[in-house]
Amino acid sequence: MPEIFKLTDLCVGQKVEYHGYKVHEKSNFELSLSSHFEKLWDGYSPECRKRIAVAAKKRYELSWNISPEELTDLGLRNRRLNLKGIKVTDYERIIRLMHFCINNGKGRILGVRAAKKRLIYGVFLVQIHGSVTIVMEVNTAGSLEKHIGYFVINEIIRENAAKYTKLDFAGISNISAVPAGQAFGGNRVPYYRIYRNRLFWPARIMK
Question: What does pTM read for this prediction?
Fold first, then answer.
């Protein structure tokens, strides 16, 4: 990185070891979708299959008629997107990104509504280059209790099995003590956060 950059904070796929940089290994999970759904189902953990079955008994109706604004508002109202350091402009940026992907046929928002059409769960997907990526997931207390996340992810896998190459769990939170991607039979894929802070004091301690 050129010396003109005083703050470096990047996530990359390759491990980099270089003097002056802090490197932290993190984990993502990816599930190959090349097989038929029945074979993918066999790869789920027993607890995962159990929770899907519990949620399926409620016969939740999946909805694709969800706007980026509604999904973001759900996260803010349930404090799922209230992350430290995130500004209003950052939320506006993700909303514009979702609209861009949807308008260009590369993105979709899938959700579940409860009584009176009230949204209680939503997930934003990007489908491009043969893969499906979960960019953002928003849970509520009700959806976590009823295992709706398990149910929805299973439906995403069912719909895309043997059609796309992989499901990338990049934007999903852990829906139990076991990472979601691992529960669904995904493989761990390491990535690395590279950090260097050469800002002047006191700006340095704020980053």
Answer: 0.84
Q: Beta 131-138 vs 166-168: how paired, if at all?
A: parallel
Range of the domain at 40: 29-188
DSSP for 106-132 reads SEEEEEEE-GGG-EEEEEEEEEETTEE
Among the listed residues 196, 193, 195, the one whose alpha carbon sits nearest the alpha carbon of residue 28: 193
Per-residue pLDDT tens, the chain, 207 aa: give them: 778 888 889 988 888 888 888 999 988 999 999 999 999 999 999 999 999 999 999 888 889 989 999 999 998 887 766 566 677 788 899 999 999 999 999 999 999 998 788 899 999 999 998 899 999 999 898 898 999 999 999 999 999 999 888 999 986 755 555 688 899 999 999 999 999 998 877 766 666
What's 37's domain CATH number? 3.40.630.30
Strand partners, 144: none
- DSSP-derived letter for residue 60 is P
Q: Would 41 be classed as within a structural domain?
A: yes
In a domain, 124, yes or no: yes
